[in-house]
Structure formats: C-alpha cells, structure tokens
C-alpha cells in the first residue's frame, strides 16, 4: 500500500454490517476497534462473530483460531479509542445527518492521514465527503452482506476523492481478498439502484396478493438462478435499512419506480425487520 501501511481499522457501528466487517478484518489479522453506542450491542456483535467463526470451523469452511481472532477486536463506546487507527469504516444507520455528525466527531480524534470508508447503501459519497474538510480522504466502499463471504465490493469515488485514496482502498480490499470495481458516484450506486427495485416490487406483489413470498423467491432462485430471492435478501439486509434506502433513492431521483412499498413500511411499524428481529417476509 505504498508508504501508508494499514495495521489497524476502526469500525463505526456494530449492527448487521459492522459485525460482518469486524469479523472479516479480524480474520485477516488487522487490529480492530469496534465502536457502537452501547456495550450490550457490542457484546451481541462479538457473540455473533464468535458463533460464525465456530460454525465455519465446524463445517470445515475455514480453520480459524477463534480466541485469537476475537482478541483482535477491541470493543468500545468511546470514540477516543480511534486515535491510532489507519482506516475508519463507517456502518451506522442510513441517515445523512447522523452519519455527518459522527464524521465531524471522529475526524477530530483520528490522525490526519486516516482514510474514511463510507459503507452506505444509497447516499452519494460526495454528499458526505463535501460536507467535510478532508473530502479527499473519503471514499465509498459498499461492502455486501454477509461480508465475510463476499468476494466483490463497489468502490465509489466521490468528486473530491484523491487518486491516492482510491489506490490505497483497492490495495486494502485486495489484502482482505475482496476484489473491487471503481465506479462513479450516484445515489444507490450500481447494486442498490437495481436490487432495491426488485425488493420493492416483490413487496408490492405480496401486498397485492399476487404471490406468497416463498413463490416469488422460488422464481428468482430457480428461474433466474439468483442465489437468493429478493425477499430473503430484504430480510438479510434489514427491512428498516431497505426502507431508508428506497426513500433516499426517491429523494434523489423523484421517480415513481422508487416509491417505497406500503408493505415494507408496515413491516417496519410492526417491528418485522427481517433476520435481525427474527421475522420479516420469513420466520428465523
Ligand atoms: N444491511 C445491509 O445488508 C447493508 C449492506 C451494505 C451497506 N449497508 C449500509 O451500512 C450501514 C449500516 O447498516 P446496518 O444494516 O449495519 O444497520 P444496523 O441498524 O444493523 O446497524 C447500525 C449500528 O450503528 C449503531 N450506531 C448508531 N449511531 C451510532 C454512533 N453514533 N456511533 C456508533 N454506532 C452507532 C447502531 O447502534 C447499530 O448497532 C447503512 O448505511 C446501510 O445502508 C447495509
């Protein structure tokens, strides 16, 4: 990675994505500082990582020393612990203001050379970067879920992201065995401009009583040879995150294709958030 060596990674948010990113980084021998707002959330995240590692070992998918891997992760609610990290990967909720507040706060703590990777589903990277004084060091890295199993990430260049930041990010991703493809900035990037249309329309089909969730996903998996149908994918992402993302797409494109399905909104009201709450389109 040229002159700049990444040894430690700060991860903001220990939810669905932060947990996966922390596992992947620790597996790849990086020192991890995992930050969230409560110790309870952090402990839950660590337990998930431990279970995943043990399961992978049991299924002979890998052979990790579970304790050694877990010990690479420092859990904290105190952003001051980020003072020495080389890279920050942010995975907090899909809300521009919430993200910006946190960037303002941690950038005063992190060292000047630190690179900030925004893991957002739909918010344009320039929307975040241009509000910050270090926009050349801000880049989008759209990690896909589940992170430890993924082999590709979209890397999104904001309009001020420097070439050095792009090169470092691609080398960093290579070091964790993730191929990257650099694209230009646009709300939803490539992945979510496409995938959220499928998920939203699949939810409309359920609402209209045209088909059951099982049938819709079956057609995708058996017919289109997708590994996962759109409704299982929505459950995996989190229905709340899907709704926030579709709303962001609509706020930028003002296109009726991106009007969020009432079915998805109703599920959020009922707390049916997918895998993370135990019930979404399917039961877990
Ligand atoms: N879920 C997916 O499949 C997926 C995929 C790619 C990108 N993303 C994006 O990643 C981001 C996170 O999504 P998620 O699904 O992990 O959400 P999540 O709701 O599961 O987790 C978000 C976490 O951030 C924490 N948090 C909130 N404010 C914080 C703060 N100030 N400091 C530290 N932690 C804070 C919350 O407590 C929570 O644990 C979103 O922008 C989302 O769009 C999600």
Structure explained in plain terms:
This protein is an alpha/beta fold and 284 residues long. The chain has two domains: 8-184, NAD(P)-binding Rossmann-like Domain (Rossmann fold, 3-Layer(aba) Sandwich), CATH 3.40.50; 192-277, N-(1-d-carboxylethyl)-l-norvaline Dehydrogenase, domain 2 (Orthogonal Bundle). 44% of the residues lie in helices and 14% in strands. An eight-stranded mixed sheet has the order 3-2-1-4-5-6-7-8. Strand 5, helix 5 (125-129) and strand 6 (138-142) form a beta-alpha-beta unit. It starts with 7 loop residues before the first strand and ends in a 15-residue tail after the last helix. The structure holds nicotinamide-adenine-dinucleotide. The site of nicotinamide-adenine-dinucleotide has 26 residues, from helix 1 and helix 10. Nicotinamide-adenine-dinucleotide (NAD) binds next to helix 1 and helix 10.
């Amino acid at each position: 990675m040229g002159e700049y060596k990444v040894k430690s990674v700060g991860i903001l948010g220990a939810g669905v994505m932060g947990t996966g990113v922390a596992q992947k980084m620790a597996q790849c021998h990086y020192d991890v500082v995992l930050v969230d707002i409560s110790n309870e959330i952090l402990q839950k995240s660590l337990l998930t990582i431990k279970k995943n590692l043990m399961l992978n070992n049991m299924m002979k998918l890998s052979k990790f020393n579970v304790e050694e891997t877990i010990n690479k992760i420092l859990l904290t609610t105190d952003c001051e612990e980020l003072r020495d990290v080389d890279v920050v990967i942010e995975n907090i909720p899909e809300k521009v203001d919430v993200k910006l507040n946190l960037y303002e706060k941690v950038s005063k703590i992190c060292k000047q050379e630190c690179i900030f990777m925004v893991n957002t589903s739909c918010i344009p990277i320039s929307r975040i970067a241009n509000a910050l004084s270090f926009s050349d060091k801000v880049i989008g890295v759209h990690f896909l879920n589940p992170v430890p199993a993924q082999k590709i990430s979209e890397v999104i260049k904001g309009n001020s992201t420097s070439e050095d930041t792009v090169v470092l990010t691609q080398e960093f991703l290579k070091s964790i065995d993730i191929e990257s493809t650099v694209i230009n900035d646009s709300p939803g990037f490539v992945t979510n401009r496409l995938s959220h249309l499928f998920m939203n329309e699949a939810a409309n089909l359920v609402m209209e009583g045209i088909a059951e969730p099982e049938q819709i996903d079956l057609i995708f998996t058996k017919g289109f040879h997708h590994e996962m149908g759109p409704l299982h994918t929505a459950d995996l992402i989190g229905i709340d995150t899907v709704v926030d993302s579709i709303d962001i797409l609509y706020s930028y494109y003002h296109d009726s294709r991106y009007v969020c399905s009432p079915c998805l909104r109703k599920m959020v009201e009922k707390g049916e958030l997918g895998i993370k709450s135990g019930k979404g389109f399917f039961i877990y």
